[in-house]
Each structure stands twice: as C-alpha cells, then as structure tokens.
Amino acid sequence: MSNYILPEVWETPQQMGGAWGGLNQPTTGARFEQTLPKGDKPFQVYSLGTPNGIKVTIMLEELKELGLNADYDLFKIKISEGDQFGSDFVAINPNSKIPAMLDLSGEEPIRVFESPSILLYLADKFKAFIPEDFAKRTEVMNWLFWQTGAAPFLGGGFGHFFHYAPEKIEYAINRFAMEAKRQLDLLDKELATKHFITGDDYTIADIAIWSWYGRLAQDNIWDRAGIFLNVKEYKNLQRWTAEIAKRPAVVRGLAAEHKEIN
C-alpha cells in the first residue's frame, strides 16, 4: 500500500526518479541555445530510432523506393540528454518531442512535427501511401488517429510502468497491460479479414501502427515486454508484422544512421 496522500494543490517534486525523471518539468520552451546542423537534402529530420522516430525514416525510404525525390539528412536528438530542449529544436517543435522535420524543398522552409503529421504531410506531398478516394482516405485517417490516441497508453502507460518506472507498481502494470492486450486483440481481429490494416493496400496507417505494435509483436520494445504480453498468440498480427518487416524500405528505415548534432 502506498503512503502517498494527495495534496490540495500539486507542486513539482524535488526529485522524480526513474529513467526520465531528471528531465521532466511542468513548463515548456527552450532551456539552452542550440544550433542544429542542416544538410543539403530536401528533408532535414531530427529524430531518434524510437517507435515514433522510425515512422519517418520508413516513410521516406518507402518514397525513395518508388523513385521519388525524398532524400533526407537524419540527425540524432539524444532525448535522454535533453537535446530536444535546445532553442533550434524547440523552434521546429515547441512540444520538444521527436521526430521533427524541416522541408527545404520549396521557397520557404516548412516545419512539420508529430509523427502522424509528418506521415500525412509526406503522403499528401508525394501522393503516395494514401488513397485519393475520399472514403478510403477516411479509413486510413481513422487508423492513423487510432494509433495517435492508443500508443500513449502503450508507451507512456504500459511501457513506462513495465520498464522505466523506479518501482514496479502492480496496479499500474495490470491496468496498462490490460489496455495493451485489448489493443493487440483489436488489431489481430481487424487483420483476420484484411491484408493490411485498411484493406488491400499498404498505407501510412500501416507504417504508423507497425512502428509501435509490429515492433512489439517482434518483442523489440522494452526488454521481454513481448513475452510478458504473450504477443505470439496474435497470429494475424504476427503475419502482418512479418510481411511488413521484409519490405526493403522498412529494413533501410530501421537501419538509417543518425548523424551527431555536435
């Protein structure tokens, strides 16, 4: 039993603990001056190889696979060291989260932040991996926004309490493991009748969802989390995961090398 008593008004604790506790603050904005490098490619990506980060490299590699001019420079933002709070990064993404991207292909730079927004931006710009048909596009958007809303329960919920929290809290782990299993069951049932998540075609919805749930199905997020959640029981999810994992662009997207920023 916890001895914690709720105060009338919450105040920032002196020490949070855990893997990320020292970085957390209840305020936003730049914490230090920073000059991010820029390459000579059309797209400048500032990211890390996390589930959200790999969405962008996979998408760019898929576009390149089609012969489109989607070359990019990829720079490493070390979130554990606080690079995301530097002035240049905050200017691209005021929310201080990776990935963030600059499109330098036009007359003026365009900033794009939040991984689903980057996927949708690139899909619309290149007219690829998203249907033109309004009804089919809407179904892709349904699942893109599902991933956006669902993944925080998987990452910030289950992943945090299973892997990162300074102590194992049974209630929290059970609460979020239950939700993670519910999400996996949903995907497994959808994929029982469809080749990809929205039907016959591979889209940005598959890229977004695979980057979290496919990687979990491979047990490639958080040590032994896949075993803990018994991901092998989701046979349709496993089939879909394995097929996407073999795509050359996905292989390249996962292996993309991040350049140091300083």
UniProtKB/TrEMBL annotation:
PROSITE patterns: GST_CTER (PS50405), GST_NTER (PS50404)
InterPro entries linked: Glutathione-S-Trfase_C-like (IPR010987), Glutathione-S-Trfase_C_sf (IPR036282), Glutathione_S-Trfase (IPR040079), Glutathione_S-Trfase_N (IPR004045), Thioredoxin-like_sf (IPR036249)
UniProt domain GST N-terminal: residue ranges: 40-130
Domain GST C-terminal: 133-262
PANTHER family reported for this sequence: DISULFIDE-BOND OXIDOREDUCTASE YGHU (PTHR44051:SF22), GLUTATHIONE S-TRANSFERASE-RELATED (PTHR44051)
NCBIfam families the UniProt entry points to: PRK11752.1
Protein name: Glutathione-dependent disulfide-bond oxidoreductase
Organism: Streptococcus caledonicus
Lineage: Bacteria, Bacillati, Bacillota, Bacilli, Lactobacillales
